[in-house]
Design a protein that fits this description.
By secondary structure, this protein is an alpha/beta fold. It has helices at residues 12-22, 41-53, 68-74, 88-96, 112-124, 131-142; strands spanning 2-7, 27-30, 59-64, 82-84, 102-106. The chain is built from 6 helices and 5 strands, in the order βαβαβαβαβαα. A 5-stranded parallel sheet has the order 2-1-3-5-4, sandwiched between helices.
Length: 149
């Protein structure tokens, strides 16, 4: 499984930790950032979203200071369902019920060890394919490209 990962400067330390912990179990694609100098998180959300859209990666991990901004940015891309997960339950349900393809984290929201558990739960949980969840995901997908008022 290929996993694309990126962060802004506010998530850099957690990104580096996760890369190191996951590299033996997954093929990791590091899309930056590569130091703690200030950068704009939307650019890194775009890199991971494009990796999924182009099939360069199967899943993604995004990290910023609190996880909100980078999640919003990623969800602007067609085909992306990015879920900000604060615990393992949110991570499992984002996959089981919503077929999320990117997990988002905030570096300040949990310990590094808790973040690793969240990511591992996300990456090992499969979409349920239950009719009601499949129907709802299809409804979400149908909204992509709709004109908004």
């Amino acid at each position: 499984m290929k996993v694309s990962i990126a962060s802004d400067h506010g998530g850099f330390d957690l990104k580096e930790y996760l890369l190191n912990e996951l590299k033996n179990d997954y093929e990791m694609v590091d899309e930056g950032c590569f130091n703690k100098e200030s950068v704009d998180y939307p650019l890194y959300a775009k890199k991971v979203a494009e990796d999924l859209i182009s099939k360069k990666a199967d899943y993604g991990i995004l990290i910023c200071t609190n996880g909100v901004g980078i999640t919003i940015a990623a969800n602007k891309f067609k085909g992306i369902r990015c879920a900000l997960c604060l615990n393992e339950d949110m991570a499992s349900h984002s996959k089981l019920h919503n077929d999320a393809n990117i997990v988002s984290l905030g570096q300040v929201n949990q310990t590094k060890e808790e973040a690793l558990k969240i990511v591992r739960t996300f990456l090992t949980t499969e979409f349920s394919n239950e009719e009601r969840h499949l129907r709802r995901v299809k409804e979400i997908i149908s909204f992509e490209g709709e004109m908004k008022c």
